[in-house]
Design brief:
Oligomer: single chain
Strand content: 5-15%
Helix content: 40-55%
Order of helices and strands: HEEEHEHHHEEH
Number of helices: 6
Distance between the termini: 50 Å
Structural class: mainly alpha
Number of strands: 6
């Protein structure tokens, strides 16, 4: 059975808690609402804790989970103004939890320089259009991206 949305979010949060406990030194039990483990053993342990990426734009639950558990987020799909509004919500969740948003965003805070952020988003959106336009049929009927021809030089230009 496919559980309702609220239960799926509860299960996601418990899975995040279990993963973080498995990657820690705590091999003790986990007793959640949906999952019950006698031990949270992960053998072999990773050399370093794998990063957690949460994608989504839900303001009440998804972005709260990002603020609480994630090392990265994926919300860059709907245009600069949309992304900026979601980043503001993420900031509020981080403030509530006492977390620095830069630990999630992986660099300078885009809200500190909104004009530069929006300009960069517009340039990346243009590259996304190029990616779609650069798909071409391959001999086997699949599609091949011709990144080297136009997109990679534009990415290098933006990063300067």
């Amino acid at each position: 059975p496919y559980p309702p949305m609220a239960e799926r979010f509860e299960r996601l949060e418990e899975a995040l808690q279990i993963a973080l406990q498995m990657w820690s030194d705590d091999e003790g039990p986990y007793d959640g609402t949906h999952y019950h483990l006698a031990e949270t053993i992960n053998v072999p342990q990773p050399l370093r804790r794998p990063p957690i990426l949460i994608g989504g734009t839900g303001e009440r639950k998804t972005l709260r989970l990002v603020a609480q558990y994630a090392d990265a987020c994926n919300i860059f799909a709907f245009g600069p103004e949309f992304v900026q509004s979601k980043l503001e919500v993420l900031h509020r969740h981080c403030d509530d939890l006492g977390r620095d948003p830069a630990t999630i965003l992986g660099g300078p805070d885009p809200l500190a320089d909104p004009d530069g952020f929006l300009s960069a988003m517009e340039r990346y959106a243009a590259i996304g259009v190029d990616l779609v336009q650069l798909r071409r049929p391959a001999d086997d009927g699949s599609f091949v991206h011709r990144l080297g021809e136009r997109v990679l030089p534009r990415l290098a230009e933006i990063s300067r």
